[in-house]
Design brief:
The chain is mainly α. It has 3 helices and no strands. It has one domain: Methane Monooxygenase Hydroxylase, Chain G, domain 1. α1 packs antiparallel against α2. Pfam families: Ribosomal_S20p (PF01649).
């Protein structure tokens, strides 16, 4: 347990950041799931629109350090490949 005032403040800050990160990660996953759902439904227009909505969220998460830049690129690349494979 944190004993000094500085350590108590650090514990508070860490908890605030943890909760913020969890919320942002959850939002990110939701946007990615919307794209996947549209792809599975074979609705190309919805998939393209969902992808356009998801890309800025993915980029923002990578920029803020929530996910690694390579993971962001991998998500975008794979989702885009699935959309392009739809006939």
């Amino acid at each position: 347990m944190a004993n000094s005032p500085q350590a108590r403040k650090r514990a508070r800050q860490a908890e605030d950041r943890r909760q913020r990160n969890m919320a942002q990660r959850s939002t990110l996953r939701t946007f990615i799931k919307k794209v996947i759902k549209a792809i599975r439904a074979e609705d190309k227009e919805a998939a393209v629109q969902a992808f356009k909505d998801a890309v800025p969220r993915i980029d923002r998460a990578a920029r803020k350090g929530l996910i690694h830049a390579n993971k962001a690129a991998r998500h975008k690349s794979r989702l885009n490949a699935h959309i392009k494979a739809m006939a």
